[in-house]
């Protein structure tokens, strides 16, 4: 399975993908014994239902960090570094059989009023949760020190499409 995943990563890298966004990687591994998550003793009615359980067996398993490190070895990709336009992305999706395809992009510029707070919560929050509390501030400071200025500029490509049946 891993070899197949790496083949997929190489396939897309060879076609010019600049990176991969894996928003739910913390859900990648589950408890091998298939244990149920225990109830959250701090849950109060009115809280998000997702907080009803302590996700000890289904989220942020130790294997996730190992997987991230392995995928990170693709970080030395020499290029080419380019992005597909919304029109190219739409065309590719339609060729793959997707219907009702809608793609659009827009530039996003974020200049946070409090860069330390913004990076510590919005940008790095889920990463900081994995660090010891005593190491979190130093990590945010190290990230900010690498930036010329604490401004985040990127182009967001949005995609809505129906899968082929």
What does this structure look like?
This protein is an alpha+beta fold and 165 residues long. The protein has a domain at 1-82. It is built from 6 helices and 2 strands, in the order αααβαααβ. Helix 4 (115-123) packs across helix 6 (133-145).
Briefly characterize the structure.
It contains 6 helices and 2 strands, in the order αααβαααβ.
Write the layout of secondary structure elements.
Blueprint: H1 2-14, H2 62-72, H3 86-95, E1 99-110, H4 115-123, H5 125-128, H6 133-145, E2 152-162
Antiparallel strand pairs: 1-2
Largest sheet: 2 strands, antiparallel
Extended strand count = 2
Class from secondary-structure proportions = alpha+beta
Helicity level: 25-40%
- Which runs of at least 5 residues are low in confidence (pLDDT < 50)? 77-81
What distance lies between the first and last C-alpha atoms, to the nearest angstrom?
Answer: 24 Å
The number of helical elements comes to 6
Oligomer: single chain
Strand residue percentage: 5-15%
Give the strand order, joined by hyphens, for the main sheet. 1-2
Strand and helix order: HHHEHHHE
How would the global form be characterised? globular
Give Rg in angstroms.
Answer: 20 Å
Report the average pLDDT across residues.
78
């Amino acid at each position: 399975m891993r070899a197949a995943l790496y083949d997929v990563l190489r396939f897309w890298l060879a076609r010019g993908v600049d990176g991969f966004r894996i928003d739910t990687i913390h859900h990648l591994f589950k408890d091998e014994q298939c244990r149920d998550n225990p109830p959250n003793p701090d849950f109060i009615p009115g809280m998000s239902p997702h907080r009803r359980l302590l996700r000890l067996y289904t989220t942020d398993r130790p294997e996730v960090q190992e997987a991230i490190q392995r995928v990170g070895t693709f970080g030395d990709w020499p290029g080419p570094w380019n992005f597909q336009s919304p029109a190219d992305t739409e065309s590719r999706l339609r060729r793959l059989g997707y219907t009702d395809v809608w793609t659009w992009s827009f530039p996003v510029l974020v200049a946070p009023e409090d860069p330390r707070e913004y990076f510590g919560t919005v940008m790095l929050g889920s990463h900081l949760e994995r660090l010891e509390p005593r190491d979190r501030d130093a990590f945010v400071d190290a990230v900010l020190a690498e930036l010329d200025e604490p401004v985040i500029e990127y182009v967001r490509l949005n995609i809505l499409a129906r899968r082929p049946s």
